[in-house]
C-alpha cells in the first residue's frame, strides 16, 4: 500500500509541476493577460502565428475559431492533455501490470490484517470488515487486470473524441444563441402589433363597441408577447454564459459574438455520401478504439466475443448513422430553400401593403400586419438557415469521427 501511495504522490507532484511550468510559459508569452479569460494552459507561442494568437486572444468570438478556442482554453480539454501524459507511450502490458501490481498489494494487505488479529481481540470485527473491503478492492483490481485491453493509443483516441464532442457542442450552443437572436425582431414586431391592437381595443371598448372580455383578451395577447421576449432574452443569456465558459471566458463575460455563417445550399448537392461513409468508418474514434481493444483482448474469454461483435457491427452502425444524417441534411436544405422563397414573397407583399397604406387603401393595422408577417418570415428564413448549418455540422462530424459506432 505504501508503494501505491508513493506512486500517487509522485503522480500528483508531476501534475502540479507540469501545471506550474505551463502557467509560467503562459505568463512569459502573455497568453493569460486577457482579463476576461479564465486561467488556461495554452499551447506554446510557436503553435500559431502571431496573427492567429491575436485573433484567439481578442474579445471577439467567431464561429470558425471554436475548435481552436476549445483546444487552448477549455478546462476539460486542458485537464485531459495533462492526464494523457500518464498514458503517453504506455503499452497494453504496462497498464495491465499496474492493475496486477495493485491487486497483489491489496491481497497482501488484506491477509496481513487478518494475520495480525484473532477472534478474541476487541477490534476483531472492525479489522475483519476492513480486511474484507480490501479484498474486494483487490478482486476488482484483479478483474481490471484480467480484462485490461487498452493502451496509450486508446486513451489518446478517447481524449480526442472528448475534444471533438466539446467542439460540436459549442457549435450547437452558438447556433442556438443566434436562433434566439434571430427570433427577437419577429417577437418585437408581434409585441408592437399586439399593443397597437390593444390601444385600438381600448378606444372601441370606451365607445361600447367591444366587450370587457374582448378587451381583456387583447391585453393578454400583448402581455404574452412581452413575456415571449423576456423568455427569449433569458434563454439567450444562458446560452451566452455556457458558450463563454466552454471557450475560456468567465461565465459573466460579454465577448462580441459574431454571427454564424450559413452554408450555401449548393454545398449539400456537392456531397458524395457513399464516399463519405468510407471516410466515416476510417475516422471514427470509437471504432478505432474498439479495434485496438480487440487486439489486446484474450481469445476465448467472454470479453473477446463482446469486442468482436462491437468491431464487426461498428461499420454498419457508422454507415447507417452517416446515411441518416445525410437525409436530415437534405431535409434541412429543402426547408431553408423554402424559407428563402417565403421570405421573398412576404417582402413583396409588405412593400405592396406599404404603398396601399400611403394611398389610403388599407388601415395602419392592416399595414402593420403585413410588416409583422415579413418580420416573421425573415426570422423563419434566418432560423432555417441556422438549422441548415446545424444539420451540416451534424453530418460533417459523423463523417469526421463522431458517427454512432455502437448501441
Written description of the protein model:
This protein has 407 residues and is an all-alpha fold. It contains 13 helices and 2 strands, in the order ααβααααααβααααα. It has a two-stranded parallel ribbon. The radius of gyration is 31 Å and the shape is elongated.
Largest sheet: number of strands, sense, barrel closure: 2 strands, parallel
Structural class based on helices, strands and sheet pairing: mainly alpha
Spatial sequence of strands, sheet with the most strands: 1-2
* Helix count from the secondary structure assignment: 13
The best one-word shape is: elongated
Question: Could you tell me the number of beta strands?
Answer: 2
SSE string:
HHEHHHHHHEHHHHH
Radius of gyration: 31 Å
What proportion strand?
Answer: under 5%
Q: Which range best describes the helical content: under 10%, 10-25%, 25-40%, 40-55%, 55-70% or over 70%? A: over 70%
The stretches of 5 or more residues where confidence is low (pLDDT under 50) are: 1-33
Task: Calculate the terminal CA-CA distance, rounded to whole Å.
Answer: 39 Å
- Overall pLDDT score: 81
Which features would summarize this protein structure in a list?
mainly alpha; two-stranded parallel sheet; 78% helix; 407 residues
What would you say about this model in short?
By secondary structure, this protein is mainly alpha-helical.
Record the SSE blueprint.
Blueprint: H1 2-29, H2 50-57, E1 60-61, H3 66-73, H4 75-87, H5 92-115, H6 124-147, H7 152-206, H8 212-246, E2 256-257, H9 265-269, H10 273-283, H11 285-295, H12 302-358, H13 364-402
Parallel strand pairs: 1-2
